[in-house]
What we know:
This protein has 359 residues and is of the alpha/beta class. Helix content is 47%, strand content 15%. A 5-stranded parallel sheet has the order 2-1-3-4-5, with helices on both faces. Helix 13 links the parallel strand 8 and strand 9. Helix 10 packs parallel to helix 14 and helix 11 crosses helix 14. 52% of the residues are buried. It is an enzyme of class 2 (transferase).
Amino acid sequence: DKGAYPYYMLKEIDEQPAVLRRLLTAYVKPDGHVDMPANLLNALAAADRLYFVAAGTSYHASLAAAPMFEELAHVPVSVHLASEFGYHMPLLSERPMFIFLTQSGETADIRQVLVKVKAQHLPTLTITNVPTSTLAREADYALSLHAGPEIAVASTKAYTAQVATCSLLAKALGEYKGVAAAEQLDLFHELSMIADAQQSQVDEKEVIHTIVKDALATTRNAFYIGRGSDYYVALEAALKLKEISYVQAEGFAAGELKHGTIALIEKDTPVIAIITDPVTAAHTRANASETAARGAKVITLAAKGLAAPGDDLELADVHPLLSPLAAIIPCQLLAYYTSMDRGYDVDRPRNLAKSVTVE
Ligand code: M6R
């Protein structure tokens, strides 16, 4: 039931802090240690490379998750689109393990990969919001997202639940392997702070609606730019805008603009810059300025510690590995208000289904 909400999507955006807290209750023991099944950790620790295979929003969540496993658990990770992987399989490492991030657990593109890798007796883990789903049943291991039913076609709370669950798993794996970076990270504290940050972000609805009225009301295209994790957020932000408001939106690695894309910038083209990484903040700002010099309407979403006068919205300062959990929220709201203001059915965009059970 969506209660007083006009659309499920808005309700689900608002639920994200509660989902994150629920995940902490589900996966963190009272002594602060992450509680993951020992046989799963054993299988993951035996792998020399983790292969994430996913689609759409879950693919973007996989991109955000990869650096967590590399940094906290010292295991190489590659991230693949399910629709490509099954038919153009790369040369696998000696001891691969497959992780399928999937909100529905029913995505056909992923299932065909699962069938192929199981035929080779390779270990598989499904992380899904539907514990009774096909992919949860058929994989060797399954973890639940605890996000509650997601009704809107555009995924929001399942995305943040996927990213958060992966951070917990990466920390647990790192501790299991004795990696100092995992042992030193107080993830419970960091994620609790992020739940608060998400709350302040969802409370910024008026600011975001004003940005939409100023910059996105009638535009036919829009670009999101960022570097590192901010780039992965840019990809997901663009998908959100595309799927529910039918704006031609693209996410770009900010440094790539000058290698071609900048040719697309015209007067008033919206360019949304996402800046949460201190290492690359100045570079992304410079890239945004280059688009402004060509007439773009730049909207800057920057972390508090990196903010500059004239920025449009302040993002919370959070642990760099976890920044997508907070940075995506204003982007979800940008898409929501653009769709709503244009009079579309936000929850049921044209041509799309909640779970895609055909290849
Ligand atoms: O159920 P899945 O996460 O496997 O679905 C994959 C994509 O179809 C899905 O993430 C899709 O991109 C989102 N619903 C878009 O918001």
